[in-house]
Amino acid sequence: MKQIQHADDMRFWADEQRSLHKTIGFVPTMGALHTGHLSLAEAAVRDNDLGVASIFVNPTQFAPLEDFDQYPRPLEEDLAKLETAGIAAVYMPTAAEMYPRNFSTYIDVEQVSQGLCGGSRPHFFRGVATVVTKLFNAVKPHRAYFGQKDAQQCAVIKRMVRDLDMGIEIVEMPIVREPDGLAMSSRNVYLTAEDRKRALCLSRALFDAEKKLRNGERDGGVLVQGVRDAMRNVEIDYVALVDAETMQPIREPIRPVVLAVAAFLPTARLIDNIKFDPNTDDAGSQTGSGR
Length: 291
Ligand code: AMP
Known about the structure:
With 291 residues, the protein is an alpha/beta fold. Helix content is 37%, strand content 18%. The longest helix has 22 residues, at 193-214.
C-alpha cells in the first residue's frame, strides 16, 4: 500500500492511474478506523480498480472547545487495517500543508447544512465541505464512499458535488452497528461503561420508531415525541424528522426521510439515524445484528 503525504504526489499518482484507465474509489476518514470505516474501504476496493483512503483529522471542522487534540490517532493500526482491506494508496496530508498561512477559501453548502448538526456545530459543514473538496482535488476519484451514520454530511457532499459539477459519484453506505445496536463511531472509545449503557437508548429509540413507520405511523410529531421519550436519560441535542435530500424538517414522511438524533453524554456527543422510504418501505438503516 502506497503512503502519500503531499497533494502534488497524490495528484501525480491519480493522474497516472487515470491515464491507465483505472477507476478510483475514495474513502475519506479521520482515522481511528472501525468496522464501519472498513465497510466503506471494502466497497471502494470491490467497485473500483483501485481503492484510496485518506486519514486526516481536519482542524477546520472542530470548534475551539471540541475534541481535536484528544481525537484518537492510532496510525499504525489504521494503516494495517487499510492494507488488509485491499486499499492501494493512503493519503495522509499534514494540517500545515492543507491549511497554509493565509488560507482563505471555504465552501458553504446552504440549506442542507442548516439545522441538525449544523445547528449545534455551526462551523462543522463548512470545514467538512472544504476539506472534502481539497481531498477530491488531490485524489481525483471516480466514486467516493460516505457513511449514512453521518446522514447530513452525505446530503451536504451530494449537494456540493452536484452544484459544483465535480463529476464524482457519491455512494452512501449503511450504518455498521455493534451487536447491541450502538452505531460504531471513533468517539465511542470516550464512553465510560455507564455512558456506553445509556448510549443504547439512541438506537433503541430509532428502531422503535422504525417499527412504527413500518406499521404505518405517518405523524412526524408522534414519531419524534416517541424518540424523545425513549431518550429521557440523556441530554438531547436534537431529534428531527427531515427530508432525506434537503435535510429540512418534514411533518409527514411522504418522501424518503431521515429520523436523526444527537445527544450529549458526559463523555461524548453521539449521533444516529434511520432512513425510511414510504414508497419502498425500505428503512435501509443497518448491517449490524442489534435489532
Ligand atoms: P470519520 O472518520 O468519522 O470522519 O468517518 C469517515 C467515514 O466513515 C464517514 O463517511 C462516516 O460516515 C463513515 N462512518 C463512520 N461511522 C460509520 C458506521 N458506523 N457505519 C458506516 N460508516 C461509518
